[in-house]
Amino acid sequence: MLAVSAGTALCMSCAVFVTNDLRMMRSAKTDHLLALADTLGVGAVNALARGDLRRAERVLNSLQAHPSVVYASLHDNEGKVFARYRAPGTTSTTSPPPLPPANGAYFTDDGHLGVLGLVHLDGRPVGSVYLHAALNDLRAELLHYLRVVALVILASLSAAVLISSRLQRLVTEPILRLTRTAQQIAAAGDYSVRVQKGANDELGILCDEFNRMLERIAKSDKELQEARDLLEQRVDARTAQLSRANVKLSREIAERQRAEEELVTLHEQLIEAAHRAGMAEIATDVLHNVGNVLNSVNVSCTLVAERLRTSSVPQVQRLAELVNEQRERLGEFLSNDPRGGQVPEFLSLLAAELRVEREALLDEVGALVHNIDHIKQIVAMQQSYAGVSGLVEAVSLEQLFDDALRLHAPWIAKYQVEVVRQFEPLPEIRLQKQKLLQVLVNLLQNARDALLESGRGDPRLVLRINRTPQDAVRIEVSDNGLGIADENLTRIFSHGFTTKAGGHGFGLHASANAVQQMGGKLAAASEGPGTGATFTIELPLEAVEVPV
User: Fold this and answer.
1) Angle, helices 433-454/343-385, rounded to nearest 10 degrees
2) Phi first, then psi: what are they for 179, rounded to 5°?
3) Pick from 128, 94, 125: nearest CA to 112
4) Domain ranges for the chain
5) Alpha helices of 310-342 — where are they, by DSSP H?
6) CB count, 10 Å around CB of 511?
7) CB 396 within 8 A of CB 440
8) Residue ranges of the alpha helices (H) in 422-544?
9) How far apart (Å, rounded) are the C-alpha atoms in residues 75 and 20?
10) 3.30.70.260, 3.90.700.10, 3.40.50.2300, 3.30.450.20: CATH of 2-156
11) What are 475's strand-pairing partners?
12) Are strands 112-121 and 104-107 parallel, antiparallel or unpaired?
């Protein structure tokens, strides 16, 4: 490194010196030719002024003492050549170099130097002198100079390499010892090794610092080993704790899984209970309707029995007995006997009374037939909804609403509830008919309770079926009854929540779950107490079964 740096500096210095000397040599050469041109001008001024060509040529031939000048010419004021000179060895056919455009010295493209000087007589120019000189001597001098510089550089570099090789050991030996020690420590991991100090110079200080660094590393390694041992002990202790915690957590997970399984079972039981409760409510409504119809049947049977007990049929029997007694003399009896004379009038009255009795009995029998048919319809409807739970089938929503209203027909008629139907024509949709009927029956039951508790004189139910822009079916049950408080709108679908004195709190909860299982949602809206309430069911047009 020292040799390279010294050699680089030396080469740069020599390059500067060579460049400067070359510039000085060129400048000296230029000054020499300019001075020579002035001298020739002084010697040739009279010849140029008198037009003496021979004398002018003798002046120019004096340039033979200057071998570097290969061509010279003397010009008048118009630039015409008056006399010229060619150095020995050059042919006359060689074209003269071009005349420079102004006075001074110029380096030409062919490696020559051209000089143009003016010739003055009595302070006025009478012509000019042009010299064209080769630079061979300048090149030879430069080449000699470069040889000397090369020899100096070579000698200097040799001395630098020799001195550097001597000094190298003083620097590299401690560094090599330090390197070997570092490699030994890296290979064996033994931080007890120390570097041998050679002197108290900078490298000696470096060795001392390296040894102190090894001591600190050894100390740190010892502390690290102790910390690692302590950490392993803590890890073992923590692992034991985690193992115990893992066992405990496994037990808790098992218990939680059992609790979740029990919760699923309870949820299924709750759904089944809600289903049974809904079916029980439907069955109760069915029995109530059947009971009302049976009351009418009982009344009709009583009237028929009373009519039969007070019937005129016994009088017909007595008349038949009388006619049978007078069979031998029936004509005389009808003509002469006062009793026989009353027989035609009696028959006429009896016929009229029997006709009235017949019409009354037919009316009562017709009422019996109608009530019995009504019972058959109610029982058939109950049987149609008591089928397999969860069956998806095509259902007419209007017919489903009519069936739900039929189950609530007695109280609707009793309290003269106005029922407004706003049904948009829709095709049959596929869903679980039994579930939706339970939901509708439950909503109508809540509407009945709200209307009864409100005590309104104009109870009204508004039933709507329409299609939403999202291709869903919206079913609404609205009443003008008691209404729902704002704080209860988000709680009424929670399990166990009820505002009724004898309520069980899972009717709306079960209804919401049933609608959700069919892929829809159940919502409630009310402007507050006394303003009525609206329950809205939204269902997809296609059947969707959501797992419980």
Assistant:
1) 110
2) -70, -45
3) 94
4) 2-156, 295-380, 388-540
5) 313-325, 330-336, 338-341
6) 25
7) no
8) 433-454, 507-517
9) 35
10) 3.30.450.20
11) 465, 537
12) antiparallel
Tens-digit pLDDT profile for the chain (548 aa)? 666 777 788 788 878 887 887 788 778 878 888 888 888 878 878 877 778 888 888 888 888 888 888 888 888 777 788 888 888 877 654 456 666 666 777 777 667 788 888 888 777 888 888 888 887 777 777 788 788 888 888 888 788 778 777 777 667 777 777 787 878 777 877 777 777 777 777 777 877 787 788 778 878 878 888 888 889 888 988 888 888 888 888 888 988 888 888 877 776 676 666 556 555 555 555 555 565 556 556 666 776 777 677 776 777 777 777 777 777 777 777 777 777 667 777 777 777 777 777 777 777 777 667 567 656 656 655 555 554 455 678 888 888 888 888 777 777 888 888 999 999 888 888 888 878 888 888 888 888 888 888 888 889 999 999 988 888 899 999 999 888 888 888 788 887 777 776 566 667 888 888 888 888 899 999 988 888 999 999 988 765 444 44
DSSP letters for 142-199:
HHHHHHHHHHHHHHHHHHHHHHHHHHHHHHHHHHHHHHHHHHHHHHH--TT--PPP--
The residues pairing with 538 across neighbouring beta strands, listed in sequence order, are 474, 521
> What predicted TM-score, i.e. pTM, was given to this entire model?
0.38
Please measure the distance between the N-terminal and C-terminal CA atoms of the chain and give it in whole angstroms. 86
Distance, in Å, from the CA atom of 441 to the CA atom of 456, rounded to the nearest integer, reads 22
Structure tokens at 546: 């959501």
d(CA 12, CA 16): 6
Q: Per CATH, the architecture of 388-540 is what?
A: 2-Layer Sandwich (3.30)
Structure tokens at 250: 């496994």
Tell me the C-alpha distance between 477 and 458, whole Å. Answer: 17
Encoded tokens for 336:
């002469």
